[in-house]
Amino acid sequence: MKRKWLAAFTVLLLVVMMSFTVSSSAAPSTYVHGVFSTSPLYVKDGVTGNWLTATSGNAIASWTENPLSSGDQGFFNAIVYVGSVKYEFRLVSLSATTTDQIDGTFDIYVNNTLTATVNGTVYGLSQPVGNYFKFYDSAYNWHVSAYITSRLDY
Q: What are the alphabetically sorted keywords of the record (predicted)?
């Protein structure tokens, strides 16, 4: 009698464990992401080559990591001040996205004047709040980085 109860309990336990495994694997994963910053770190000015400490600014990145029927989607904009000098990094053409990065062509403005158009990557986007993300152009002349102050993934 004791063996029957033990066998029945074991089967019941296996069924319950399998139902959790099946239900958790059937849950959809997130593939739309948004990362926001109100705390920029550094800018590298590609004209002067100087590394500069940001004094204020904001940044936003939004992207899909799985191609939609219409293709990947992405947006990136960072406006960072170093004293009175304004740097703006804008994604103007998207090449590709992953869970962690956005690749594309970026326009870079200094004091509202278009200064460069470069290919580059924003990466570190999968990090949790409190960590930072970075942008580098493909020649490592331009850079902007910022702490992630909030994020939304769905």
A: Signal
Domain extent listing, the chain: 32-153
| Residue 113 exposure: Cα atoms within 13 Å on the Cβ side | 5
**Helix, coil or strand: residue 60:** strand
Reduced to 3 states (helix: H, G, I; strand: E, B; else coil), residue 95 is strand
The structure's pTM equals: 0.79
Q: How many residues does the chain have?
A: 154
39, 146 contact by CB (below 8 A): yes
- In this prediction, residues 61-83 reach a mean pLDDT of 87
Pairing of strands 132-137, 113-123: antiparallel
Q: Following DSSP, what letter does each residue of 77-92 receive, concatenated?
A: EEEEEETTEEEEEEEE
Average model confidence (pLDDT) across the chain: 85
